[in-house]
Write a structure and sequence with these properties.
The chain contains nine helices and two strands. The chain is mostly helical and about 240 residues long. The chain has a two-stranded antiparallel sheet. A hairpin with a 2-residue loop joins β1 and β2.
Length: about 240
């Protein structure tokens, strides 16, 4: 599936059905990431949002929908139904869309090649700057991870620039792996009190929605929200092309 469409289609559908433009909150983005990581197909997530708003519009007295979390229960219900329907289905599907083995050579990139290269170069420069600043006070495994990630980004940039048929999905997989490496290194090298404080803050932000979320979804969303707080606090850039 088109990785980038997963987020943008969900955002566009929610805004369209709500009827008023409303920027998604960090909690909403964390929830979308949770659905993506759980393997909720895009079409299933969109159907859940549509059904949630259909039910909402049928109510005589309605409160304003302010968050994507309003649709969370219906999305999970639709996902459960979809999972049951998939029993016995052949493998080789991801997020509800068949993986096509052969793609046309002229498949279009999700973004212009120049924009992708600029994104990679900017991310590499940011990582090196963070590493240089950190080395002034200490040198730890996080510094090493930053340096390794920056070196790998340079390789990816050079390969993508010279490729006759650049593969954005393959690049995205590599960037996702680098993000996980950086996230793990950041968590492992944070002072215990800073990590605990950030976790408490993220938990407090999400706590009002605990009763409306399945425990696995709540925990995944909490982890995503925690990482977002920590990345922002330390200036760590997102590498995924979705954030281009």
């Amino acid at each position: 599936m088109n990785y980038f469409n997963y987020f943008t289609e969900i955002e566009d559908t929610f805004i369209r059905r709500r009827g008023k433009h409303l920027l998604l909150s960090s909690m909403d983005w964390a929830l979308i990431e949770s659905w993506k990581e759980m393997g909720v197909p895009l079409h299933v997530a969109l159907r859940g949002i549509e059904h949630a708003f259909d039910s909402y519009n049928a109510k005589p007295r309605r409160r304003t929908v302010k968050s994507l979390l309003y649709c969370q229960e219906e999305v999970e219900a639709q996902y459960a139904e979809w999972m049951e329907a998939q029993l016995g289905a052949a493998e080789g599907e991801k997020n509800g869309e068949k993986i096509v083995e052969k793609r046309t050579e002229d498949a279009r990139l999700p973004f212009p090649r120049a924009a992708i290269l600029e994104h990679l170069n900017g991310a590499r420069a940011s990582l090196l700057m963070i590493c240089d600043e950190r080395k002034k006070s200490r040198k730890d495994d996080f510094c090493d991870a930053l340096s390794r990630a920056a070196s790998r980004l340079k390789e990816l940039e050079e390969d993508f620039a010279s490729a006759a048929r650049p593969n954005a999905e393959k690049l995205e997989d590599s960037l996702t792996s680098l993000e996980k490496l950086l996230d793990e290194a950041l968590l492992a090298n944070l002072p215990a009190n800073e990590l605990a404080s950030a976790r408490v803050a993220a938990g407090e932000q999400l706590q009002p929605y605990l009763s409306r979320m399945e425990r696995p979804v709540f925990e995944q969303t909490l982890d995503n929200l925690l990482l977002k707080r920590l990345r922002d606090a330390h200036g760590l850039p997102r590498l995924s092309l979705f954030y281009l």
